[in-house]
Design a protein that fits this description.
Largest sheet: 2 strands, antiparallel
Strand content: under 5%
Number of helices: 7
Strand order of the largest sheet: 1-2
Bound molecules: protoporphyrin IX containing FE
Helix content: 55-70%
Order of helices and strands: EHHHHHHHE
Number of strands: 2
CATH superfamily: Transmembrane di-heme cytochromes, Chain C
Length: 210
């Protein structure tokens, strides 16, 4: 058995605040959007919680961004620059998730401090963290105070357009979350990828890897 320190403290703090915050945002957001169908909380409470937790999540995002911008750990997000090699590794990982795992094959990727993600994770996490989440946050911020941000809202096509983009990003994030929750259970034990997000350390059972 080998231990690798893969999730530094700022990443763990960011991640769990983000996870709890997103669950709260999904619950209150669904309540606000589908008032006729869902009655989990009073409408006013849902709006207030959605606004404040949203602002907290935006601030928290900069903890994640700041950590990676100002530390050498940014390498974990840098993909293999040889496209052929990148897609070879990507395909290997996809085959493992779609087929090999059911045959008891070994995990193709070993997470280490400077190389923690497989190519599928690099691509997905980059799209979520650098595109979907910023657009979700920015559109949410505009909707938070449409009077104050009236000129910016108009520049992006009006409230209806900004609201549509916000709801679309919510759908993408929720779909990501469902996939994410499944994929994090695919370690050599059910909690093998979850425990490191709490302790920082991933235990590698060398016999389980190529
Ligand atoms: C209850 C909800 C969640 C749980 C239990 C959870 C669990 C985990 C676990 C165990 C990892 C480490 C394994 C890995 O790197 O793949 C991880 C990483 C990650 N999760 Fe989540 N997650 C949750 C919600 C979210 C949400 C809502 C987002 C984004 C919108 C998110 C984004 C990420 C990202 C970007 C990483 C990589 C972080 C880094 O090391 O830089 N997670 N998550």
């Amino acid at each position: 058995m080998e231990k690798h320190y893969i999730h530094p403290l700022p990443v763990r703090i960011w991640h769990w605040v983000n996870a709890l915050g997103f669950l709260t945002m999904i619950a209150t957001g669904v309540q606000i959007r589908y008032l006729d169908l869902v009655q989990l909380f009073p409408f006013k409470t849902a709006v207030m919680v959605h606004n404040w937790v949203g602002l907290l999540l935006i601030a928290n995002y900069f903890l994640w961004l700041g950590f990676y911008m100002f530390s050498d750990k940014i390498t974990v997000y840098l993909p293999e620059m040889n496209a052929a090699k990148f897609f070879q590794e990507f395909w290997k990982q996809l085959k493992y998730y779609g087929h090999g795992i059911f045959l008891g094959e070994v995990e193709p990727h070993v997470a280490t401090a400077y190389h923690k993600f497989n190519p599928m994770q690099i691509m997905t996490y980059q799209i979520i963290m650098l595109l979907v989440v910023p657009v979700l946050f920015f559109s949410g911020l505009l909707l938070w105070d449409v009077t104050q941000f009236a000129s910016i809202v108009a520049m992006f096509g009006g409230i209806r357009m900004v609201d549509t983009v916000h709801v679309l990003m919510f759908i993408v994030c929720t779909a990501f979350l469902i996939m994410h929750l499944y994929l994090i259970t695919l370690g050599h034990t059910l909690l093998a990828h979850i425990k490191p997000m709490l302790t920082g350390y991933e235990t590698v059972n060398k016999r389980r890897y190529r």
